[in-house]
């Protein structure tokens, strides 16, 4: 068994345990001392055999971050593109997340933050929660709508 096969088998095993994007695999290979053409060859073989698929990774990432971590669509698309995923693939992945589930998660995140912010001034409290929600990648108009419903 050649060194390339050993490296392929190790990375394939890791990829079978969880999703990796192409850039993540290249980073793993670089950390293991594999670079250049050999790394590209291993990555191509992983793609051909179905261990690495950027579209599948983007879908899983978007679903997990939206529904489990409470991230908004803007932040998810930003992070995916920073990981080397094409912008159109990232937008398609985020569009596949259920809008109802995402909206209910956004409301839960905002309500939780609203309860945790202790401020005597309602405007200050509202501003802090708004900044928090925007940093999570939610749309400003949707956040304001939720905040308005909390203040009633």
Task: Detail the topology: elements first, then pairings.
Layout lengths: L2 H15 L4 H10 L4 H13 L5 H14 L5 H10 L4 H9 L3 H18 L5 H14 L4 H12 L1
Overview of this protein structure:
With 152 residues, this protein is mainly alpha-helical. It folds into three domains: 3-48; 54-95, Arc Repressor Mutant, subunit A; 99-151. It is 76% helix and 0% strand. It has nine helices and no strands. It has helices spanning 3-17, 22-31, 36-48, 54-67, 73-82, 87-95, 99-116, 122-135, 140-151. α1 (3-17) packs across α3, α4 (54-67) runs antiparallel to α5 and α8 packs antiparallel against α9. The chain is elongated, with a radius of gyration of 20 Å. It starts with a helix and ends with a helix.
- The tally of beta strands, per DSSP, is 0
Unreliable stretches (pLDDT < 50, length at least 5) are: none
Rounded mean pLDDT score: 91
Number of domains: 3
Count every helix, treating DSSP H or I runs of 4 or more residues as helices. 9
**What is the general shape?**
elongated
The N- and C-terminal alpha carbons lie at a distance of: 69 Å
Please outline what is shown here.
The protein has 152 residues and is mainly alpha-helical. The chain has helices spanning 3-17, 22-31, 36-48, 54-67, 73-82, 87-95, 99-116, 122-135, 140-151.
Record keyword descriptors for this entry:
3 domains, single chain, mainly alpha, Arc Repressor Mutant, subunit A, 152 residues
